[in-house]
Amino acid sequence: MEAKDVKIIKQYDRHLIIKIIAALLFTIGFALVYFAFLINFEMDIDWTRDKQVAKWGKGMSGFLFFSVIAFGLGINLMKRKLIIFDLSKKRYKSEFYIGPFHWGNWYSFSDLKRIGIFKNTKDIFELNIWFTNKRYVQFEKFHDYEDALAEARYVAEILELEILDASDPRNPVLLE
Does the reported pTM lie above 0.85? Predict the structure, then answer.
């Protein structure tokens, strides 16, 4: 696999305020888990009595539930998407990452065709990378058309593809 055969496309980084909110959510999640264990070890529970165990379980469930919610929201805010195209083997990998942790799968494709900008029913612009066999991979969603167009030009420059602006479904335009 040579470097010229591999093309990597990354999403833009998150804004600083989003990173701060995610860090706060992770901190809250860790604090809730810590307090759950702290309370667990400081309580004098007789494990042979069902009422005390039930009371302990009710107290722990709130801490653990909200810690899972905090971790889930933090992960959702911090995850980013990366698409790796291996043009020599005709495959791509749609990968998500949070810091050093990456996960994703390889998929095969016939050939790359174009980059498409589409406006869905919720007035959100979707950026898709189309293949010749009418399959596509959704890369990103935008609320602003200018942001979607800038990202489409960035992806089109890397993959050397044309851009189809279908934000108006009745009048699609092929951009240079």
Answer: no
